[in-house]
Amino acid sequence: MTALVPNTWLSHGTIECKNPPKSRRFYQEVLGLGSVRPLPAAQYLWNGGRWSLVCVGIGVDTKPQGPENRFRLRVDTAAEVEAARETALRLQSEHDIREIGPLEVKAGVHAFMLRDLDANWWEISNVPAEHYDEAFLRGDVAV
């Protein structure tokens, strides 16, 4: 099959924020993401590689997302997931984190989710680094 758009890489996704400087501080200090503001109304969030998030400052309340629309950040160990959750709980009021979910363990993967000041959901987990490579190698499940 020939693709309509024979692209070479996936560039970015977009999220909204109400107060770009306050959101930037959360992304850097809590989530550990790099941030640069190349445009007055937008900042790029990055963790290496060719893919990033563009955070657009809209100046009004953002549209809330459900937890199924989340971004996953990977850490190496279960202990790091647990430490990240404890840190999020400690910094919740300082960074206006709206919600922090419970620690969950499924098939050896530790994870929790949090909802940031702009109503975006983030999952912190120790999913294996090869998770997506292996999923694409296995292919579709029978439906």
Tell me what the structure shows.
The chain is α+β, with helices and mostly antiparallel strands and 143 residues long. The chain has a single domain (12-138), classed as 2,3-Dihydroxybiphenyl 1,2-Dioxygenase, domain 1 (Roll). The protein is built from three helices and nine strands; from the N terminus they run βαββββαββββα. The protein has helices at 20-29, 78-91, 131-138; strands at residues 12-17, 34-39, 42-46, 52-57, 70-74, 99-100, 104-106, 109-115, 121-125. Strands 5, 6, 7, 8 and 9 form a five-stranded mixed beta sheet that branches. The radius of gyration is 17 Å and the shape is globular.
Produce a short descriptive summary:
The chain has 143 residues and is of the alpha+beta class. It is built from 3 helices and 9 strands.
Key descriptive features of the protein:
143 residues; alpha+beta; 2,3-Dihydroxybiphenyl 1,2-Dioxygenase, domain 1; five-stranded mixed sheet; four-stranded mixed sheet; 3 helices; 9 strands; 31% strand
Ordered list of secondary-structure elements with their pairings:
Layout: E1 12-17, H1 20-29, E2 34-39, E3 42-46, E4 52-57, E5 70-74, H2 78-91, E6 99-100, E7 104-106, E8 109-115, E9 121-125, H3 131-138
Parallel strand pairs: 1-4, 5-9
Antiparallel strand pairs: 2-3, 3-4, 6-8, 7-8, 8-9
